[in-house]
Amino acid sequence: MPADPQPSVTSPPPRSTPSGPVEVRRSTRRRKSVSAYREGDRTIVLIPARMSEAEERRWVAVMLDKLAAKENRNVLGDRELSERALRLSEQFFGGRARPASVRWVTNQNTRWGSCTPSEGSIRLSHRLQGMPEYVVDYVLLHELAHLLVPGHGPAFWRLLEAYPRTERARGYLEGVVAAGRLPHHDVAGEE
């Protein structure tokens, strides 16, 4: 995507994230739209000049997640998903959660994942495909935890405390659900 041709307001110098530096460009001509794109190893986020610093921080995080999801379109197959579940079980649960099968399904439209502990089977909704890795990992860990603890009681949530991105992933998923109730915007955030 080419640079924003609109006049811009100077923003603070670029910041760095694990995915590289982020440069925020403010435009006096932008009213509502926010967009982002990669330029080499840096991320450019285009926002209206009137946005507050808090709104800027929120939108930068949203747009980084959207770009990561877009770039993560090379979806894991069922075999890779199973291997990932085993790695997560080892890392966060000492390898105690051992699923017999882990697979994507297309018939789960109201849940992100499900688990049948008696069979050791875990199913993830195809709607997770393309979402950031930390979100898929959270849902996998959530279902792995059900192999160890049924229900959603205190012991279940204590298991998930080991994953440092639990709260962020839950917030992301809540945002996806909430966004489903709003008018549709494209991946770049344009209205």
Automatic annotation (TrEMBL):
InterPro entries registered for this protein in UniProt: UTP_pyrophosphatase-like, YgjP-like_metallopeptidase
One family name in Pfam for this protein: YgjP-like
Gene3D superfamilies attached to this UniProt entry: Metalloproteases ('zincins'), catalytic domain
Residue intervals of the YgjP-like metallopeptidase domain: 100-173
Organism superkingdom: Bacteria
Region (Disordered): 1-35
Stored PANTHER family: UNCHARACTERIZED PROTEIN YGJP, UTP PYROPHOSPHATASE
Protein name: M48 family metallopeptidase
Upper taxonomic lineage: Bacteria, Bacillati, Actinomycetota, Actinomycetes, Kitasatosporales
